[in-house]
Amino acid sequence: METLTQQHKENKNKSSQPKHTYEQLLKGNSDWVKNQTDKDPQYFEKLAAGQSPEILWIGCSDSRVPANEVTNTKPGEVFVHRNIANVCNHSDMNMLSVLDYAVNVLKVKHVIVAGHYGCGGVAAAMGNKQHGIIDNWLRHIKDVYRLHAHELDLISDNALRADRLVELNAMEQVFNLCKTTIIQNAWKERDDLEVHGWVINIRTGLVKDLNISCSNTDNLGKIFALETIAEKAATQV
Fold first, then answer.
1. Which residue out of 81, 82, 116, 161 is catalytically annotated?
2. Do 190 and 147 have their domain in common?
3. Is 92 a catalytic residue?
4. Looking at the domain assignment, is residue 218 inside a domain?
5. What is the DSSP letter of 218?
């Protein structure tokens, strides 16, 4: 997401560039279909047969970071959820529903939280301006700043501070996912599920692995590692 000021400046710079008309979008679709069927006449029959992705991608809504292009994967290989600044909020029923379906029905093996440098949502969260209803969403990112203010306030360069907040935000969202009963219950039944944190550099296209991959509750605080009903019953015997 871009801040309103950034969007205004970029729109002025792009005003001389050709726009996509509605008709061009429809033409683009027909061209894409023809291209796919020319390469593989059964492409859409295979696609319609079902999906079995091993990856859940939770990324930013920013149009510059599409999951399949970034990972060089095909349709059907990545299950995707996107929102402003890739936030994983414990009360977001949309995200939780996607997570539950991906983990318990599709049986994905990797959940990736993918932030990106130059994130407008993160930049907006660092400021004090009001932007509208989105301010309520940005509060989650401001809370990440609060948790790491001792580090972030020491970074004098605003761009570098924003880059670091992008990284810290992705890390915190990984931990937020690991705190859910969805992930923890899956871990008690499976040993092939991992949660990862990435940041995409949109200037190079390359991914930075934040090296915080989790496959159990070992790195969570004691109060976040939840016991199962069976474990609770065993302690009461």
1. 116
2. yes
3. no
4. yes
5. T
User: Among 81, 88, 119, 161, which one carries the catalytic annotation?
Assistant: 119
> How much is the pLDDT for 9?
57
Given 62, 88, 140, 196, which residue is catalytic? 62
Whether the Cβ atoms of residue 83 and residue 77 lie closer than 8 Å to each other = no
**Integer Cα distance of 37 and 32 in angstroms:** 9
Q: What integer pLDDT is reported at residue 109 of this predicted model?
A: 98
pTM for this predicted structure: 0.87
Mean pLDDT confidence for 119-126 = 98
Catalytic residue check, 116: yes
pLDDT score of 24: 96
Q: Would the pLDDT of 213 be above 60?
A: yes
Two tokens, residue 138: 């940005």
CA distance 16 to 146: 41
Task: Mark whether 150 is an active-site residue.
Answer: no
pLDDT digits (tens, 9 = 90+) for 23-70: 999 999 999 999 999 999 999 999 999 999 999 999 999 999 999 999
How many distinct structural domains can be found in the chain?
2
64 counts as catalytic: yes
Q: Which entry of 64, 110, 131, 148 is annotated as an active-site residue? A: 64
Are 145 and 152 a contacting pair, CB within 8 Å?
yes
When pLDDT is averaged across residues 164-179 and rounded to a whole number, the result is 98
Per-residue pLDDT for 7 more than 70? no
Range of the domain at 76: 51-236
Do both 93 and 38 map to the same domain?
no
H or E element that contains 207: strand 207-209
Is 141 in the same domain as 84?
A: yes
